[in-house]
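Before a colleague's protein record goes any further, I have to sign it off. What it holds is a sequence and that sequence's fold in token form. Would you go through it and say whether the fold makes sense for this chain? The record follows directly below this note.
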Amino acid sequence: MAGPGYGKRSAPGQLPRTNADFPHLLPREASIAAYLDRLAEGTDISVKTLAKHLPYGQCALRTALNRLQEAGHLRRGREHINGTGGGSSGSARWVTRTWFSRTARDETWWAAFTRGDVSEEEGPENEGSGRRSRPATRSRAFILLAALGRTAPALSLSYADCVALEPQVMTWFARGAAEPEVLRALTAGLPSPVHSPAALVRSRLTAKLPPEPAAARPALRVLECGTCGAPGRPEVLPGGVCGPCRGEPGPRQHPATLPSARVHAHAATARAAASHPMERTQP
């Protein structure tokens, strides 16, 4: 696995996995794509790490990843995220991303994804057309209601009650509530006796419904050239490669970053100048 916040990230809205997802790729690229597709989120998929687990050298893997990029299955870049810890370690920062999509995407889709115009919960294209639907399974909400009597016997519900109350519990989940929170709201301070369990549950689900969460801002993303790492807008990185790396005329732009040692040196010079202001006036 890569470090926290790094590694593979799956693109949203992919088609369901099949036994022939990459027929348009060469055999080597298809096998590597199938391997990447089955890796967990956050897995280190750098060339050096992949070479330790696949029967290909680093040069062959680098070429294969570039071809996956050209075919619309992969993009490299950076994403702005907020830290979860306190102090400086919990501040917002840019992290390196490698996005992988089992479903090949064109330049328009990747541009929309970079802008944040693609829903992270987007459903796959043509979902359900010509496919047999899976057998229905019980939702988290139904399971919680059906088991409510085990926590509070006075709130034992019938099948019809669970079906009727299920949408209300799903609303709680949609607003970020977890099962323990819903259970506390339904079972704390119960009257004795409970004359109508379903009516009491319905009343509490309505009266104690948490507020809607604040709308999440779309993630800030910047794509980078898969060859030289220069950042750029999606429209100037067709196939994930910048113009100079494709052989087009123009200056090659590298990311403007300073080594940490130079940053510390500049900071020390600034502090020294601030602590000795008279020295700056001497000839």
Summary: The chain has two domains: 8-117+218-246, 140-207. The longest strand covers residues 74-81. The two ends are 57 Å apart (CA to CA).
